[in-house]
Amino acid sequence: MPRFPLPRTRTTRLLALAAVVVLAAAAVVWTTSGSGRPAVRTQDAFVAVPAAPGSAEQVRIDTTTYYPERTPAPAVLLAHGFGADKTGVGAQAEELAQRGFLVLTWSARGFGRSTGKIGLNDPDGEVADASRLIDRLLSGHDVATGPGGAPELAVTGASYGGALSLLLAGTDHRVRAVAPVITYNDLAQGLVPNTATQTEPAKTPAAGAFAQDGVFKKSWAGILFSAGSGGAPSAEAPEAGQESSDNGGAAGGSGTSPQAAGPSGRAQQPAADPCGRFTAAVCKAYTELSTTGRASAQTVSLLRRISPASVTNRITVPTLLVQGENDTLFGLDQSDATARQVTAAGGSVRTIWYAGGHDGGTPGPQLRGKIGDFLWSALTGDGDPGHGFSYDVQGTLRANGTPSVRTVSADTYPGLAGGNTERQQLALTGPAQEAVRPAGANPASVSGIPGLNGLASSSSSRLSQLFGTDPPGQGAQFGTQPFDRQVVVAGASTVRLRVATDPAHPLPEAVLFAKLYDVGQNGSRALPANAVAPFRVTGLPADGTPVEVTVTLPGIVRPVETGHSLRLVVGTTDQSYSVPPQPGVFRIGLASGSALQVPVVPGTSAGAALPTGQLIGIGGTLLAGAAVLTVVALRRRRAHDVDPKLASTPLVISGLRKQYGGGFVAVRDLSFRVEPGQVLGLLGPNGAGKTTTLRMLMGLITPTAGEIRVFGHRITPGAPVLSRIGSFVEGSGFLPHLSGQANLELYWAATGRPAEKAHFTEALEIAGLGDAVHRRVKTYSQGMRQRLAIAQAMLGLPELMVLDEPTNGLDPPQIHQMREVLQRYAATGRTVVVSSHLLAEVEQTCTHVVVMHRGTLVAAGEVGELAAASGEATFRVDDPAAAAAALKGIGGVSDLETEDDLVHANLGGLGRAEAVATLVRAGVAVEQAGPRRRLEDAFLQLVGDD
């Protein structure tokens, strides 16, 4: 069992006491807030509804009602997403019921245990079903009423359920508020988008072109169709209205009933049907799209009829639109269109963009809490449902893991009530270029893979690099100048392009794909949200005269850092879309005077709101520790020492000395400086004082004299600036009975910093342990422990990283990997200090070196400069043997070596020019002469036999 040292000083005892007080009070708050949660009673029932208007045939809808502690209560209809059923929203329904809502969930037609055919939210099908469920809910007298006896009733849901929410709000006057999540406005534009028009888009941040005759989104459509093309649910179910269970507090839905199950316990499936559980009209539309890649007028009419856009002009109730910033299915343009249409109808709109979506995940607890707050306020009048706009900004500094997120809030969604979205005009450069579409559109560009985009953004760099592949010759590229400051792109950028066909092989139209890459200073590029803008340009003149169009790029939220640039790529293929198979050549250029118009939405950072019931307890917690912490702060104020001139300098060591008891001096008068972006190697033989220096740097021991400053802050034991350093100095101290991953998570939790800032994915990738991260550390080899320790030092992506002998126990391939990791890490502007005895590794890895000997500094500088000071020279000659013989005859020349056409020699006191002259007189042609840069030779000269 690990031993924990007790505080030894008065200051640390006070800090420990404060921690105990705070933790004890926090435990009381946690216990209080987590206890007494109201029980939720559920009731399942099948409800019979007409299969079609005027039809005697019935469809049975499987429902679950969640009852709060008290009724009557405000009611919420909670619809599920496509391919799921009512059980998929059970946890959210229970959350809402515990807040005091009466919640009704159900499985839509064709899903779960509900019967009927899937009509994709047909007004005569799924929407009419929801209205009848409202009838049934109101008949129970459990729904609270407002002024005039109107029921307090709202509807919400995500994706498929979000569209149902809007369609119901536009057709049933009893709906008093609506909160759709990651859904569509126009299904035709969601599945067959065209982002090119002759006119400018609306003035809102993410307004899409929504042009006709788009490009079929075949990958996403195929996934959706397959989710509904399995066998139909069993028609066997309890009679209409029969209560099938009353769980009295259980929060789940119902499973498959015995009547509907076969011998294996699974629902019986009828014979295979190409249309699966879809209606004939939907099946016909999909067949047309998937075989032709084009939408006929009949298909567009169908998709329009079952889209919220058909009813948004009648929605006047408070509306909360929640849309994902990582969504290649239904982008920000869908939410933007709904916001404009509902506002024009007289409804009040609040918009939230969050760091999720169909590619990035569903709303978490905090966002679900905001949705619940909105619904409660809109129904009861308690609080303000709000009219503002907020969006999440994800950090970009990462290898492949989850970045930190901050939320920016603005008073209004720009452009809704007059005015325009602020747009920055960025000059694009690049000539008109020819782009080839190969026969069969193969190979095709890869922008993203539905269902895997989120995995790629948080997985290995190799996987993410696959999702930005543009085959050579298939695209035109245009770029901006590097940014001189950070710019947060918030919405859909636009650009004016000119497109022409090849007169030698004319085609009447072009199908193209525009992407906007974020390009780093090192040339690396990232495709934000895997977003691509497909567009079709028709009516191309056969003589090659270009057609000019305005292209609206995908809506994104992306901080483009200082020194980065944007690159527009317009390609001819994309594997996620239906592309004409005929080969062709297109000429793509920028319109005269065209600039990239980038939307920016200024705002203020918004913090997360705390539950009101916990504020008093938390306030008491803070007050309880405040007295103790105040005493500590007063005692530590004298130790607070900052030099503002060094605020941007990672490390400055001045006059450092460490003398131990008995008079032994481990470090004496040591001074050096480390700048941002450097990889500094600390070299020296055993006993040189390297580890002692690093221990003082980490505040583990106190210097006898001198000082160490990190970003201007003087280092003392426990100094706050130490949180900006990642280190591996004192050994890992891993708990052997826990796994590698658990050790990293425990270490980070002990720092008290948010889990989302740890970057566990990058750390585990760097460790390179594979599945071994889930094994107990006691089973690890020394090399595995070393790699885990290095990953621990990189948690949080510290600005200064300090590693003591990081390659001990690593094999050559792992050492090579570590070299690349450290160099990439420093390339981001961060700084690395490495203590090592492997001279070759320091020479290949580090940019600068400090050599210590017997506690003192004996040399410092760039690796190349130091290596060149060894006195050895290298000559590239035509006859190495003759050259070696000529040099051997010169007194003082030694250590002659030949290597291919190179001759290495220690010239002693002889100048290189005189040596060259000797070689020429001997008839040897000298092509090149220079110092032999070997750090090992310089090191041995500096430290002698030690």
UniProtKB/TrEMBL annotation:
InterPro entries: AAA+_ATPase, AB_hydrolase_fold, ABC_transporter-like_ATP-bd, ABC_transporter-like_CS, Galactose-bd-like_sf, P-loop_NTPase, Xaa-Pro-like_dom, Xaa-Pro_dipept_C. GO terms for molecular function: ATP binding; ATP hydrolysis activity; dipeptidyl-peptidase activity. SUPFAM superfamilies: alpha/beta-Hydrolases, Galactose-binding domain-like, P-loop containing nucleoside triphosphate hydrolases. Residues 232-248, 256-265 have a biased composition (Low complexity). Keywords: ATP-binding, Hydrolase, Nucleotide-binding, Transport. Residues 231-273 are annotated as: Disordered. Residues 651-879 form the ABC transporter domain. Belongs to the ABC transporter superfamily. This is Alpha/beta fold hydrolase.
